[in-house]
Amino acid sequence: MIEQAVPDDAGEVLTLQRAAYVSEAQLYGDPYIPPLVESLEQVRKVIEDAVVLKAVEAGRIVGAVRGRLAGTTCLVGRLIVAPDLQGRGIGTALLRALHERVPQAQAFDLFTGHLSEANLRFYRRLGYRETHRERMDDHLTLIHLRMTPEPAA
Question: What are the residue ranges in the chain where pLDDT is below 50?
Answer without folding.
Answer: none
